[in-house]
Amino acid sequence: MTAESETVVEAPAADTGTAPQTVDVDRALEAIFMVADEPQGLVALATAVGRPVAVVRQAIERLVDDYDGVAPGSVRRGFELREVAGGWRIYVRADWDELVRDFVTTQNPSRLSQAALETLSVIAYKQPISRGAVASIRAVNVDSVVRTLLSRGLITEVSTQAETGAILYGTTDLLLTQLGINSLDELPRISPLLDDGSEGFDETGQVR
């Protein structure tokens, strides 16, 4: 990977309202990765920072080297920039998975918000389901809520949707433990609580 850097570049015209006059590409990408809950493709990233794909690819290579402790003067970080499902996203480095899992499940046990509970319910009953589908059902943006549920270990990425590349989420064994049940089959049936049982559920109340 190259260590050459052309980090300060001209951004898109000011009238776009999305970027400052000059952009440090490496730092701009870092900022995007910090809030992205799905892998981001090179074209989408290039569009976001207003630079050619080749420039973004070189910046990502520099970031990977930096986080891995390969670049001169850098140290190996507790996170890594990983290519997954045709895109890039920051993940906890595998060396620290157990520590982070323990932290989010035992050391940071604050209560979930109502929004998080509603999102978790949708995922539990409709899994595997994409973030976009959850947002459509709840009619609100669920990006931050999904990140919270992932950090708590209550949901996980189970697969990728073949048609769109969207990540599909499902619940974890930790949720079963928290609910005190052995399987998802023990979740209460939803149909009796709805006007009719047709919206995503069969007549018995189980998820279709």
Q: How many strands in all?
A: 7
Structural class: alpha+beta
Helicity, as a percent range: 25-40%
What's the quaternary structure here? single chain
Q: Order of SSEs, N→C? A: EEHHHEEHHEHHEEH
Q: Strand order across the biggest sheet?
A: 5-7-6
> Which residue ranges are poorly predicted, with pLDDT under 50 across at least 5 consecutive positions?
1-21, 196-208
Question: What portion of the residues fall into strands of 2 or more residues?
Answer: 5-15%
The pLDDT mean sits at 80
How many DSSP H or I helices?
8
End-to-end CA span: 47 Å
Largest sheet: 3 strands, antiparallel
The shape is: globular
Over all CA atoms, what is the radius of gyration? 20 Å
Question: What would you say about this model in short?
Answer:
The chain is α+β, with helices and mostly antiparallel strands and 208 residues long. The chain is built from 8 helices and 7 strands; from the N terminus they run ββαααββααβααββα.
Tell me about this structure.
- This protein is an alpha+beta fold and 208 residues long.
- It contains eight helices and seven strands; from the N terminus they run ββαααββααβααββα.
- 40% of the residues lie in helices and 15% in strands.
- The strands form three sheets. A three-stranded antiparallel β-sheet has the order 5-7-6. A two-stranded antiparallel sheet has the order 1-2. Strands 3-4 form a two-stranded antiparallel sheet.
- Strand 3 (79-84) and strand 4 form a beta hairpin.
- Helix 2 packs across helix 3 and helix 5 crosses helix 7.
- The radius of gyration is 20 Å and the shape is globular.
- Residues 1-21 and 196-208 have low confidence and may be disordered.
